Amino acid sequence: MIKPGDLLTKKTMYGLDYQAGIHPDCGKKVKVHKDIIITPFYTAKFCDQLVKMSKFYNSKFSPYITYGKDKTHEKSSESPWDTLMFSRISPLLFEEFADHYNKYICPILEKHFKPTTIPGLFSPMIIKYSRKGQQVRLHNDTSEFTLNTKLNTNYEGSDLEFPRQNWNNKDVPKGWCYIWPSTVTHPHQSTPLIKGTRYVLTCWSHPVSWSPTDCGGTHTFY
């Protein structure tokens, strides 16, 4: 069993050797479908370890984003996912992820979406879908790019769909990630969970930031 005392070094955290968990083909095997970048990210073994860690910290998951008029942060159909931040588990785990992303993912994005650069990342989060019927309505993310990594496959339903791109993640192997521009062109949604528990690692890059005084000032609609 994973114990908090297992946090020993940057290399071995909570029983996790992050560097050993990086897929050997990360950034080498790359597929592109309508500006969705698909590449291996973690080994299957490391995905299993992350799921095990998630189960150990099951009580630490909390709703991160709510939809509609729900402001209570109660787990319901209006709070579509439960999240566990890497930064809450360990700042070192976040640091390892950021190094991984910068080394293997940034070069792909900056080549494909030239002249875009990636200024930084928010903490990655493990998202858990465990309630039957749990789904996410069509939306965009508050990030320049979103990365998702499939951590398990022993569930039914809960497929991530991109209607404009006519693509879903159903056939993406465990441990592979898919990255897309998040704000306008790639709205996405997840179908209802039918059976089991789905775990996915998600990371948002920093969105474009504007000052109210930039470009002659701003005007907001809502």
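The record above closes out task 2.4. Task 2.5 opens with a second protein, given below.
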Amino acid sequence: MTRSVWRNLYRTAAAAALIAVVYFRRNCGTEMVTFRGFGIFNVPMEHPGTALGWFGLLQEKRYVGLVLFDLHDLVNYALLGLIFLALYVALQRTRPAAVTIGAVCGFLGIGTYLASNQTLAMLSLSEKYAAATSETQRATLLAAGEALLAIHDPGGIVQGTGITAALFLVLLGGLLFSIAMLSSDLFGRAAAVTGIVANGLALTSFTSLAFAPAPYALVLVAIPTVLSAPFRVIWYVLIALRLLRLGRREAGSSAGTPIASQELT
């Protein structure tokens, strides 16, 4: 493949990392609730707990409802796919086993999440509910909405199997890529350590989810997630900067394998 392919991949992945930091962040809906819409949107105090509540929110404040139902996460995971692809190409010669397993975990997690996120399905049901003309139709649509919440409930501590497995696999993939960075000069020790902290901390929330007593589960699950967030932002920025430099280095040649295991200066 030509160097221009690798160059464009690195640049596209760098842009994806920066976009993920600036706008399409994971759990953006939780941020909106916490900061009450940043003074821009009229956001409810908490996520709706029923299908009827979601239907009403999606009809009255569609954008707010979509964000709270994790619409941004769909884009975030897609952007993460570009980042993981670029990391795989750049690091595949450094730690082949770790990078390959990380890529498999990451892409499997991303695919699982995209299949499990029910944002658009819930929006479709809300539209049908608003247009329903009989109580029987409304009852059927409400039951379908509750079934979707069993798979994907943005306001719940415990998500459905698909959402939970997807997050675990993506975090594990990110951790393995970060470990591989320790053996490479391409991304630097700062990016490696930051990625290990970001993904490792977030993974500890699964231990709390599995073993914490019910009254404390919410807090113990939230703490590592909140603590890992700034490290993830820094990790994305560091990855973007390094990928941009890799893209510039690829520009000078017309063919060959991508640059790997070389020191960036």
